[in-house]
Amino acid sequence: MSAGRRRAGAGEAPADRLQQVVGVVFDTDGVIIDSARLHAAAWKTAFDACLKANPPDDPPARRPFDRDDYLRYVDGKSRMDGAASFLASRGIALPPGTLAEPPGTDTVGAVAACKEQIFTERIRARKVDAYPGTLLLLRHLRARGVAMAAVSASRHAGELLDRSGVLPYFAVLVDGVEGGRLGLPGKPAPDLFLAAAGRLGLPASRTAVIEDSLAGVEAGRRGGFHLVVGVDRSAGPDTRAALLDRGADVVVDDLSELLTDSTED
């Protein structure tokens, strides 16, 4: 955490800090909509197949992909960056390839394409909902006239936000397709968040970021945002501390915690 940066909770409640901003940039998966678990499950299927086809030399590195791997190496990153990060952590050296390759286990791009195929099939076979606490916060912020943007490394973000009924809350969406078109680096670089705030016409210093991934809260910190809120839905014993360590000012289990009795609709 950079010197002099304040954390909400040290004499100032997160709801009070949120009152000080005029814009909020939301991550999508795991913050707005309940889709992070589908991403994690799709990655597990793709990575476990890759581990079987390309077993690492070190036997302990052959263990299946798990929740900690998802949070540490994949969550919040682009598909190529996430795939490359995890495979490197297990000592698997594959050619990079491209996302246009057929799904498989021979290149990083093929593994990422495998994940994409699995995820696409699963999200189109079931309903994906917005979190109730997030809906409460969205309604409150809209009533206050706060500008809102959604950000995602996924190219499915617009479809998922539309299907869950929350897309109209957001004046701006910067997703994986738009980030790729603009050549923006993925998290933990702050560029996606800064692009979203810029399209709202706001500086980072007057904007909050809400994120559930380690890479995402680090991006918010690097971008100089007024408030970085970490969301911990993992129930893991170390996730809250890790989010704070990466740069979150405060960590909540649900976004309804950002409302007080006096601010709720």
Structure description:
The chain has helices at 14-18, 36-53, 67-74, 79-89, 108-123, 132-144, 157-163, 176-182, 191-199, 214-222, 239-246, and strands at residues 23-27, 147-151, 172-174, 207-211, 227-231, 250-252. By secondary structure, the protein is of the alpha/beta class. It folds into 2 domains: 14-35 and 129-258, Rossmann fold; 37-123, Orthogonal Bundle (DNA polymerase, domain 1), CATH 1.10.150. It has a 6-stranded parallel beta sheet with strand order 3-2-1-4-5-6, sandwiched between helices. Helix 10 links the parallel strand 4 and strand 5. The longest helix has 18 residues, at 36-53.
Question: Summary?
Answer:
With 265 residues, this protein is of the alpha/beta class. The chain has helices spanning 14-18, 36-53, 67-74, 79-89, 108-123, 132-144, 157-163, 176-182, 191-199, 214-222, 239-246, and strands spanning 23-27, 147-151, 172-174, 207-211, 227-231, 250-252.
